[in-house]
Design a protein that fits this description.
single chain; about 130 residues; mainly alpha; 2 domains
């Protein structure tokens, strides 16, 4: 994802100052730079099936973290790739919430969030299908 933001920044930087869209490009550079910093800060590459099993209490918090990332990126996503990444974040959030044990104090909240996050995932997929 960070590479995509770097490419987007480079693309905006190539807009000449004589171009009518120069001001917009400069604003986008600032926005994309924030998104790049956020994606680098929150990069969390994990295999789909971790080789080390996570402690059960971790699932709820990780689900919240993934959902927060998705919600943040939803605010600025425009391209198909960006929306697909948002959808992936919602999928991860759902997986983590579904993994919350019935004996966990957050089980009820997790089940409610699965429903909410599924709606958000559907929206992100729809946005991805409509984006260029």
């Amino acid at each position: 994802v960070a590479d995509e933001w770097k490419n987007a920044i480079a693309s905006m930087q190539s807009v000449p100052d004589s171009d009518e869209n120069y001001t917009i490009a400069q604003e986008k550079i600032k926005q994309y730079q924030r998104n790049l910093e956020y994606s680098q800060k929150n990069a969390n590459p994990q295999p789909k099936t971790p080789s080390v099993k996570k402690p059960p209490e971790i699932y709820f918090q990780q689900g919240l973290n993934e959902a927060n990332t998705a919600a943040f990126l939803t605010q600025t996503s425009k391209s198909k790739d960006e929306w697909e990444f948002v959808a992936t974040q919602w999928e991860k959030a759902i997986e983590n919430m579904k993994a919350v044990s019935a004996s966990d104090i957050n089980y009820g909240k997790a089940q409610q969030r699965v429903i909410q996050y599924q709606k958000n995932l559907d929206y992100a997929r729809l946005a991805a299908s409509r984006a260029k």
